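Batch job 17 of 40 flagged for manual review because the log was empty.
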Amino acid sequence: MWIKYKIVPMSHVLAIDQGTSSSRTIIFDTQLRKVESLQEEYPLDYPKSGWVEIDPEALMASVENTLNPLIKKYKNTIQAIGITNQRESTVVWERKSGKPIYPIIVWQDRRTEDLCKKIKAEGNEEPIFKKTGLQVDPYFSATKIAWILDNVPEARKKAEKGDLLFGTIDTFLLWQLAGEHKTDVTNACRTMLYNINNKEWDQDLLELFNIPKSILPQVEESSHEFGQHKETKIKITGIIGDQQAALFGQQCFRMNSMKATFGTGCFLMANTGGEPKYSNQGLLTTIGYGVSNTTAYALEGSIFSCGTIVKWLRDGLGFFKDASETEALINKDWNSNGVLFIPALSGLGVPHWNPTIKGSFYGLTADNSKEDLITAAFKSIAYQLKDILKLLKSEGLVVEGLSIDGGMTVNKTFCQLLSDLLEEQVNVSENPESTAIGAASVAMVGVGLLSSIDDLKKVSSVGATFNPKGSLDQEDYSNWQENLDLLKANY
């Protein structure tokens, strides 16, 4: 007698990881193991000093060129789609045509410095911080939206008539892929328009920035059925901002657990539990994730230039052809022979919040080499992270190691530097791109492949661990801080 068995196809989850300079689409199995991925870069535009833009068509093409081949190949086994994205970057488009009325203004853009200064001078800094957990800075979306409405012909009139829509990149992608105007709490809370205490768009802030509520998307949890892919009808069940995605992907679910992601910028984020914790030292208060009717808050330290520095050393100065070469170019014992680097290529984030300060090398002599400059640049990234970790400790957080991810974590020499300088255990994600894992994870919860966060602990693994081998030269760190303070005094 023959017994017939039902053949169940392998299930997959698709993650769209839309970053500042490239888009990736990744296919994961239900154990969150990468099956296949495609990536495509696109250029950033710098039309004026301090301005950073992206052509929306180029960004969308990079998403479609990586998404479409994989969705065609795996469409019969994909159970859900998750989206993670560069946060704060701002796009406004026509409701009917879906066509943007202006290029995407990137999170690094500093054109609204004067507006931010005006808002501070009018005494609005503290109320905004208490409502949003954010500093008044061009980094966030609100002043970018206001700039577009005030500078693009007919934009404000069209917005007030309900003909325009705003979105961070997740919302723009969702509109293009599924025709839905929605976002999640982790992206909404980075706009400087969302009240993180009552979790809704704040009317006072909308009036302050003169932004009509009609252009804003509907806000949902990170794990939610946001819509369906227009062609395949596959459900999009997860949306989460890139840094929060890395927090989720690194499984920082308990109080005090923290991660640092090294991408275009570097962002250290620590889980502070179910209530917002506010810092008086420049740290941001943000929503870490909203999953299964549970909201976790976080403190965040933002470093604006990280991978940007490596790219500049490669493309701008021509010091090497590939980032992988830097490991061999870093001097022994991290001795930069007196050279210090202030990494303010896009201003400085936490705790300085200085958008006008510029990057610079100090201590140069005719004896210095490109290896000295490269070493100093890498040290500056670690020094900023050390500053943020010190702030978190002063806020009462207990540091029990740091999880790290991102492209720079393949550099083992750099990972050991972090451990030595921070004097903490550093745990490297097995997959350096935890943002994509985070997007897949919230999508799995949203579609029901996982019943809760606890189930995720069964389907992940940690890669290498680095422990301190000895403290580095603290005099060099002190000199770096002193030079930074002197430079700040001139801006």
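Reviewer: the log was empty due to a logging misconfiguration, but the result itself is present. The two ends are 85 Å apart (CA to CA). Unflagging and moving on to job 18.
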